[in-house]
């Protein structure tokens, strides 16, 4: 069981804090001969697998490295277009590492804003008056849990579907936010959280939650 990441979103939908706590490694590196038996295509400034799954390589996985050198979006380490490089028989055999695309800071900001909008839509769609909005989204690989305070701050945790104690963890994060962000004289409301004590206590809370430990008084 694991907790993957934590997001804090202000009442305007801006991302003010994000922590990647645990990222499962799903990278796969293989050596290929020409022609490449996978169909690749450019997508959102990167090259992804469009067709053909094999040996842990899945549709949607991005090209992360070629011959051990990291790929920068759609370009090799020396600035060559990845699609053109892989279309040239002279470059084979070639070692390619595939894996899940790492979200950039801008992508995280955009996703936080999108979730803020979905939360509001969920509240409006409710047949009951005063709905709190989205509290949990579930997929086969993770669950998204959300807790919104009375002031509109949202605490979002992405965790393994089997992870227990997330409700208690969300309230513990709120407590840490109150103690180490709001009480910090140098912190401005609605602005990004940059506080070492907040970081330290949040990471400790995540470790306790992963072990399914209780949050008792003084914890």
How would you characterize the overall build of this protein?
- With 219 residues, this protein is of the alpha+beta class.
- The protein folds into two domains: 3-23 and 104-211, Beta-Lactamase, CATH 3.30.450; 27-99, Pdz3 Domain, CATH 2.30.42.
- The protein contains four helices and eleven strands; from the N terminus they run βββββββαβαβββαα.
- Belongs to the TRAPP small subunits family. TRAPPC4 subfamily.
- Part of the multisubunit transport protein particle (TRAPP) complex.
Fill in the keyword field for this structure.
cell membrane; Pdz3 Domain; 2 domains; 4-stranded antiparallel sheet; ER-Golgi transport; 5-stranded antiparallel sheet; 27% helix; alpha+beta; 219 residues; Trafficking protein particle complex subunit; transport; Beta-Lactamase; 11 strands; 4 helices
User: How far is it from the N-terminal to the C-terminal residue, by CA?
Assistant: 21 Å
Taking Cα atoms only, what radius of gyration do you get, to the nearest Å?
21 Å
Strand tally is 11
Could you say what the CATH topology of the largest domain is called?
Beta-Lactamase
- What is the approximate shape? elongated
Number of domains: 2
**CATH class group of the largest domain:** Alpha Beta
Share of β-strand residues: 25-35%
**H/E element order:** EEEEEEEHEHEEEHH
């Amino acid at each position: 069981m694991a907790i993957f990441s934590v997001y804090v979103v202000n009442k305007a939908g801006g991302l003010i804090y994000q922590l990647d706590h645990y990222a499962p490694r799903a990278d796969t590196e293989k050596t290929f001969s020409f022609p490449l038996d996978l169909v690749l295509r450019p997508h959102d400034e990167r090259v992804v697998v469009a067709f053909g799954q094999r040996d842990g390589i899945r549709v949607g996985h991005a090209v992360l490295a070629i011959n051990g050198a990291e790929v920068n979006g759609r370009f090799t380490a020396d600035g060559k277009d990845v699609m053109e490089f892989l279309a040239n028989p002279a470059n084979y055999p070639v070692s390619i590492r595939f894996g899940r695309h790492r979200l950039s800071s801008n992508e995280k900001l955009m996703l936080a804003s999108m979730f803020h909008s979905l939360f509001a839509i969920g509240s409006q769609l409710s047949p009951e008056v005063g709905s709190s909005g989205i509290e949990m989204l579930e997929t086969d690989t993770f669950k998204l849990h959300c807790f919104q305070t009375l002031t509109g701050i949202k605490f979002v945790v992405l965790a393994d579907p089997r992870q227990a104690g997330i409700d208690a963890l969300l309230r513990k994060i709120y407590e840490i936010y109150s103690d180490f962000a709001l009480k910090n004289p140098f912190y401005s409301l609605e602005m990004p959280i940059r506080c070492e004590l907040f970081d330290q206590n949040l990471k400790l809370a995540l470790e306790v939650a992963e072990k399914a430990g209780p949050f008792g008084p003084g914890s």
